[in-house]
Amino acid sequence: MEMHEGHIAIDAPEGVASWDIDPYDAALLADPAPYYAELRAKGPFVYLTRYRMLVCGRYAETREVFGDHDRFVSSRGVGLQDFLYGEPWRSPSIVLEADPPYHTRTRRVITRALSPRAVAAMKDLFRAEAGALVDRLLAHGPFEAVSACAEAFPATVFPKAVGLRESDTRRLVDYGAMVFNALGPDNALRSRAMARAGDIVPWINAACARENLVAGGFGAALHAAAEDEEITPQEAGMLVRSLLSAGVDTTVSALGNALWCLATNPGAMAALAADPGLARPCFEEVLRVTSPVHSFCRTAGVDTEVGGVAIRAGTKILCCLGAANLDETHWEAASEFRIARRPMGHLAFGVGIHNCVGQTLARAEGEALLTALAERVARIEITAPPVWRPNNAIRALDRMGLRFVPK
Ligand code: HEM
Question: Are 54 and 47 in contact (CB under 8 A)?
Answer without folding.
Answer: yes
